[in-house]
Design brief:
By secondary structure, the chain is α/β, with parallel strands linked by helices. 26% of the residues lie in helices and 25% in strands. It is globular and about 65 Å long. The structure holds iron/sulfur cluster (SF4).
């Protein structure tokens, strides 16, 4: 296995230390130590990724599961995750992989897939694309970049399901090969963001999301609404205004139901009414596509045309039951629905 490779984005600094330039943490790492994510190590004054090709989880998923509702609707995507993460979210659903650090245990529990063998797998299962998901894709940047280069050359689409912490430098490096930036904006205020992630720096995530949009990536935003943490009307009012002003009225915004987990297991699930009120706030602020997520069968898991109000995509969970779109436009009135396919 060749899972250890020199990192692409780092600087050597004094005393044989290095600064990693992949994510907003910009860890300064001493010799023989790891960065916060636990999977990048300073060896003899050089930075190495230790998880190149180490796959913790792999599955064929509906693209709707990411969730991406306006990007190749109804397609199946080969989805992969690795180990470690650069945030430690209090309610992480994927903690078994994201809380791990590099060790023999993760090697034993991984599939090692070269970029070429991963692409062969995608072809075998007739996948329309590749999605790096389950934990933060930025932390195995070198691998995702190599995979995406091949994926794009054979016409597959490419997706990051991300917490938005990537640096501008890394985003630009991968941008020629990355089609969709499905970003979690977990909160809008620093204090709420800190309660969830342990760090305050939401601004960097907002800036990077604007940048992804400007570069031309398809952007969809997810906010998991956690009672007493990020669910104030004011915070969601400000966030929806920010999406409208910076990403555009037709940017899909998924407001999803929180379920108790890990350190937030004492918090009750989000009342559905709260999600509906937030949806109304976003609509009042001009957003055209706001979805209520993690509530099976809710009417707002469907897409309605913002012009003629017709039902254009009917969903049941991750399945599409009706599709009234022609050439990315509403079949009934011709409205542009910000669909990529
Ligand atoms: S990718 Fe890892 S090592 Fe690099 S800055 Fe982020 S947390 Fe630190």
């Amino acid at each position: 296995m060749d899972n250890i490779k020199e990192a692409l984005l780092y600087e050597k600094i004094e005393k044989n230390r290095v600064r990693c330039n992949l994510c907003f943490k910009k860890c300064i790492i001493k010799e023989n130590e790891h960065g916060f994510c636990g999977v990048r190590k300073n060896i003899d004054g050089k930075l190495y990724t230790e998880i190149y090709g180490l796959v913790s989880s792999v599955a064929m998923d509906p693209i709707e599961k990411k969730p991406l509702f306006h990007f190749f609707p109804g397609s199946m995507v080969l989805s992969l995750g690795t180990w470690g993460c650069n945030l430690k979210c209090a309610h992480c659903q994927n903690w078994e992989i994201s809380y791990e650090k590099y060790s023999d245990k993760i090697i034993d529990n991984s599939n090692f897939l070269t970029p070429e063998s991963l692409i062969e797998l995608a072809k075998k299962y007739n996948s329309k694309g590749i999605a790096f998901t389950y934990n933060e894709p930025t932390i195995w940047f070198e691998y995702t970049l190599d995979v995406f280069k091949i994926a794009k050359s054979i016409g597959l689409y490419t997706v990051y399901v991300t917490n938005g912490t990537i640096t501008s430098e890394a985003l630009h490096m991968i941008s020629p090969y990355l089609d969709a930036f499905r970003v979690d904006i977990k909160a809008f205020y620093e204090n709420s963001f800190k309660k969830i992630t342990g760090v305050k720096n939401i601004d960097s995530i907002l800036e990077r999301t604007i940048e992804a949009k400007r570069i031309g990536m398809h952007v969809e935003v997810v906010t998991n609404v956690i009672p007493t943490v990020n669910d104030s009307r004011k915070e969601m009012d400000d966030l929806s205004k920010w999406i409208f002003e910076n990403l555009g009225s037709k940017t899909p915004w998924h407001v999803t139901r929180f379920y108790p987990y890990q350190q937030f297991s004492y918090i009750e699930p989000t009342p559905i009414k709260t999600l509906e009120i937030i949806r109304e706030i976003g609509e009042k602020n001009g957003l055209k596509f706001i979805y209520i997520g993690n509530v099976f069968g809710h009417p707002y898991e469907n897409t309605f045309c913002p012009n003629c109000k017709s039902l254009v995509i009917k969903r049941e969970g991750y399945n599409i039951k009706e599709y009234n779109i022609i050439n990315r436009r509403c079949k009934f009135c011709g409205e542009d629905l910000n669909i990529v396919d």
